[in-house]
């Protein structure tokens, strides 16, 4: 089970119906078309990086791995963003991705 930030869990506990609706909307969007779970999380990782959402990058990197993405696919997703969102933002996303896929490595 993934380890969620304390404030995320507190927010979820305070608004359980809201989080249930949020999870359902995400599930419905994934089931609405042909894109597989791995690809959908890589897309959401890229969108999270573009809006500089560290929590979103962490969450979708973790979920992409759970859906079968390799570390190389996750890092390439961030590399593909450089020409679109700029190097500084992509570099920040790289560091957030590395928090997840780089665990245990020096």
How do you describe this structure in short?
With 106 residues, the chain is mostly helical.
Explain the overall architecture:
The protein has a domain at 36-106: AhpD-like, CATH 1.20.1290.10. The protein has helices at residues 6-14, 16-31, 37-50, 54-66, 71-79, 82-85, 87-101. The mean pLDDT is 92. With 106 residues, it is mostly helical.
Query: Which CATH-level-2 architecture of the domain at 36-106?
Result: Up-down Bundle
Please give the share of residues in helix. over 70%
Using DSSP, what is the number of strands? 0
Q: Report Rg.
A: 14 Å
Mean pLDDT: 92
- Distance from N terminus to C terminus (CA atoms, Å) equals 24 Å
> Secondary-structure element order, as H and E?
HHHHHHH
Per the principal axes of the C-alpha atoms, what is the gross shape? globular
CATH homology-level superfamily of the domain at 36-106: AhpD-like
How many H/I helices? 7
Biggest pleated-sheet summary: none
* CATH fold field value of the domain at 36-106: AhpD-like
